[in-house]
Amino acid sequence: MPFTSPILPPGEPALAPTPYRDLPPKTGAAPMADRRFRIDRSAATEEFGLACQRIIPWPGGDAEPPVGAMACFLKPGGDSDPDCHNQDEVMIILGGTGSVTLDGRLEPPFRAGDIVVLPRNQEHVVHNTGDTELSWLSLYWPLREPAIRTDDEEVAA
Questions:
Q1: Beta-carbon-side half-sphere exposure of residue 69 (alpha carbons within 13 Å)
Q2: How many whole angstroms separate alpha carbon 110 and alpha carbon 91?
Q3: Which residues contact residue 146 at a Cβ distance below 8 angstroms, ignoring those fewer than 6 apart?
Q4: What are the two backbone dihedrals, phi and then psi, of residue 41, each rounded to the nearest 5 degrees?
Q5: 27, 28, 50, 83: which has the highest count of C-beta atoms within 10 A?
Q6: CA-angle at 72, arms to 40 and 3, nearest 5°
Q7: How far apart (Å, rounded) are the C-alpha atoms in residues 17 and 109?
Q8: Residues β-bridged to residue 124
Q9: CA 34, CA 39: separation in Å to the nearest integer?
Q10: CA distance 50 to 104
């Protein structure tokens, strides 16, 4: 699935801001142009103390993908809510500058073009340390968080 630049060049027509709109039904494969979309802040909803645009999975896919993805946007000076999950996660920084607190330890700063690895089961908080919006594409796997097994029972995540 190709991703296009999150910033539109002047005069370029906008593509659908999210893959959840205008996709053909599952009955047949669509031409590639119909499967293209943009990372777009206006398509994001509030989650985890920041704005998130769900990218993968998208409706109309033939099979559930092994990974999930979302574009994330954090206001200048903002912090995400603490998050911890039984999934690995990679942040591909698209714009801005920031840092992450991982299991209570502040990690080195990052900027656009960096890739940040968030290991599973480690609490993380993302901080926007700049004066512009911080944006990144977050890839996580497996798509569904595995159940947590205790001594007596299995608990859904």
A1: 18
A2: 10
A3: 86, 87, 157
A4: -55, -35
A5: 50
A6: 50
A7: 29
A8: 83, 102
A9: 15
A10: 20
Alpha-carbon gap, residue 10 to 70, rounded angstroms: 25
Is the pLDDT at 153 greater than 80? The verdict is no
- Whole-angstrom Cα distance, residue 118 to residue 98? 14
* Neighbour count for residue 53 (Cβ, 10 Å): 26
**Which 8-state DSSP code applies to residue 151?**
S
| Burial state string for 86-101 with b = 16 or more CB within 10 A and e = fewer than 16 | ebebbbbbbbbbbbbb
CB neighbours (10 Å) of residue 145? 14
- Looking at residue 62, what is its pLDDT? 66
* pLDDT surpasses 50 at 107: yes
Place of tokens 């002047």: 10
Rounded distance between C-alpha atoms, residue 153 and residue 28, angstroms: 42
Q: Which amino acid is at 103?
A: D
Looking at the predicted structure, is the pLDDT value of residue 144 above 70? yes
Amino acid at site 13: P
* Nearest CA-CA partner of 54 in 40, 34, 35: 40
